[in-house]
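input
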Amino acid sequence: MFSKFFIEHPIFASVISILIVLAGAISVGLLPIAQFPDVVPPTVSVSANYPGANAEVVAETVAAPIEQEVIGVENMIYMSSVSSSSGTYTLTVTFEVGTDLDMASILVQNRVTLAEPKLPEEVKRQGVNTKKKSPSIILITSLSSPDGRFDELYMSNYATLRIKDTLSRIPGVGDIGIYPESDYSMRIWLDPNQLKSRRMTTNEVINAVREQNVQVAAGQIGQPPAPAGQNFQYTVNVLGRLADIEQFENIIVKTGEGGRITRLRDVARIELGSKNYNITSRLNGAPSASIAVYQLPGSNALDVSTRVRAAMQDMSAYFPEGLEYSVPYDTTMFVAASIKQVYITLLEAAALVFLVLFIFLQDWRATLIPAVTIPVSLIGTLAVLLAMGFSLNMLTLFALVLAIGIVVDDAIVVVEATVTHMENGLDRKAAAIQAMSEVSGPVVATTLVLLAVFVPAAFLPGITGELYRQFALTIAVATVFSSINALTMSPALAALVLRLPPENKNAFFRGFDRIFTRTEKRYGTMIKTLVRRTTLMLLLALGLTAAGSSPICRPASCRPRTRATCWCMSSCPTPPRRNAPTRCSTGSMP
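output
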């Protein structure tokens, strides 16, 4: 017999339970923590910029070629795009839940590469960016200047140069978004009247700026083979890209007869400003720069939040005077509070189960056997959750709370069966062997029945299926571990520590036994009476079913014709005949 081996080798049974607990305990630190399962579909973002183009031009020249290639990419659910009047284009491709985000990003990038030859030259020069993006924001930290020393542009640029790279290296961070993303740019405002008077076009100015604002390799002087007498070799350093307003103002855009020169300052106004002004950020009404931290799917949200806060605290020591940071938005605060309450509920449920076991079994040794099942089953379940890629969230923890009352059932059956045979004169080891020969089959059968209830929910599709999957499989796995414990550890403990209930009980247990025995006898008598009246019980069951499926009319919405008749005028699919009572069969009552 399977269980007899563990009764005769209790150390082996103990080792199995210890290994299950150790595997679960190790998994606790590795399990990702989140408020809910990762049911948000992964997305890949494609962005491009066409300077000076309106929304219609962007849609026709940028959006159309890219979307014609990207549509139909593997595992795509849908995609949405935005073409703005500022010349920016953003395409968001949403994939099915569970899709590998890295592979999805590669597939989209390959499709975008096919579309790039069809894009305008200006767009290709700016570049088309494709990157994976998780829509889950963990927290938002903001830079602000309480004394107004720094403006929004400076703070945004500071976040891009000094903060973004550091936060991006934190494990679990999927992406960093800076709002507004305002890089320093040289803005050139052309004067159309001046251009007209000099007979110039916008393209001529653009070409002149592009030709004179370049980074070139000027070469070397005296590089071998050098002529005789050349003793030194020099690397030529020339002015590359222009850096300040004055250098841009001196760009020559046109030369005329007699050496006349038209410089950029003659036809335009040049200023140092932001690359774009499409987005602004405010904190308590003052300018700020917001840094959004996106979570990498499968990461520990609480750990990421802690690391981001620590990194910001370290970097704040090097902030210029007058620059401060704060965290106005943090989703993990609610996650931590919710999970803490679930942990408290878990401990309370375990304590209540232990108390009920002790009251009914009335012996701490008999209570210990099913009580051991609780940590073995629940902690061991955590290892399977990690193997299946689940997270420690509200649903899985709630499933563990519900499983507490389920996992002790099999062990209680083992204890009661063993005690029964001990009362018949067998010693506890022989009683345990005899009991397991009788209850092993029922223990396996009840486990299979519970699995048949919960496991099918794991095959539901879509987002709803993902929610039910983690909940159902958590309870199913805990049930499997409880049955393993009932077939191995519980009979071994019963053969070692179980004893007959004491004959002399205290007043509480004596009173409890009297009440329980009296209730049991009355319940048995009632059941015998009801079994003899099968037809009456069948009619009663059918009546309760019919009453539960039929809507009940409220007095406020009814017009009684007689004491036993009620009209439901507003809930019927068709209006009733005049002066004829109508019974509603569908819909809810107002």
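quick obs: DSSP finds 20 helices and 15 strands in the chain.
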